[in-house]
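Need tokens for this chain, all 286 residues.
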Amino acid sequence: MERADIAIIGTGPAGVSAAITAKVRGKTVLLFGSRELSSKLTKAHKIQNYPGLPDIDGAQLAQAFKKHLDVLDIPITEKQVTAVYAMGGYFGIQTPDAMLEASSVILAGGVVMGKPFPKEDELLGRGVSYCATCDAHFYPGKTVAVLGCNAESCREANFLAETAGRLLYFPVVSHEVAVNDHVQVINERPIAILGQTHAEGVQTEQNTYAVDGVFVLRDAVAPDKLVPGLAVEGAHVRVDANMATNLSGCFACGDLAGKPYQYIKAAGQGNVAALSAVEWLAKQKK
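Here are the structure tokens for all 286 residues:
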């Protein structure tokens, strides 16, 4: 795949708006997210402050977004983005099965709710991982824990079980657990990851489990873990009025960029982020 002009991560109002603006401005776009768009959007009962669309509900607005993407021939790539690396003249977009490239990046993935587990940050890359298909090869025949939050984490657990000697699955939040017979489901709430220099165990409210590695599989990765070196303020990415982050060529918009958490605000910031990315790309060519 050729290098895209702009990679956009997230298919909520901010990401969709950014993709539309970028495409209208003649840029090649890689749009990552769910083809069903944002679940937060589709579940909205009624939206009363979106100009021109009084009393529209979230599902209707999502359908309008999908139609707009289709009209402009903007496909959605459903590969999970597990890391974004600033490579100097471009960005490397890591997915479970490929490393894609883009000249600039717009982060529009929404706010990651919930705090990291104790020791999660300290042991990231040292036995703690966010991508099963990326790191499964490190654990042949070993005991691995998956702290899962959704159906996708179940699928990754099944994949891991093909390599690991023993696979323990801990449902972090309530969800349908569909794993194969090689996966042992532990219905205990995990409260901490154990280890000093490397992940060595999982602590639940009831017991301690010794493991060689821990995969924390959430709906989204915290922005400063997704993009090494990215400046954040709490759960939000630090941006200026042009939606630019501290990393040259990287922009952020929507809920990820701070309150208020409003669809119209997110769409507006997506537009600004795309225009800023287009301007930044033009400057790089001079």
